[in-house]
Amino acid sequence: MIGEVYPTQVRGIVGGMTTCAAHLSVFSVVKTFPFLKASLNDYGAFGLYGAMSLGGIVFFYFFLPETKGKTLQEIEDYFCGRTKTLKKNNTQTALP
Length: 96
Hints:
This protein has three helices and no strands.
C-alpha cells in the first residue's frame, strides 16, 4: 500500500518512516509480551493483541478507500486532496 498511498515526491522518505514505525510496533509487542503474559496469563495477552488487531481491521475497513482499478494519478489526487472521492463519475450519455 505504500506505493499507492504516498505521493511520488515523498514516497521514499515517508515509506522509510512507515517501515520504521512498523518495526517499532513489532519491537513493542516483543518487549511487552512477557509482562502482559505474567499479568493477564496467556489467554489475556493474546486476547488483548487480538482485540487490537480487530480494532485495526475495523478502522481500515471504514477509513481506507478501495483503490482497485484506479490509476496511480487518481489515487495520488485523492490523498493530496485534489479530488473528494475515488468513485467513477457516471456521466456517460445514453445511446439513441
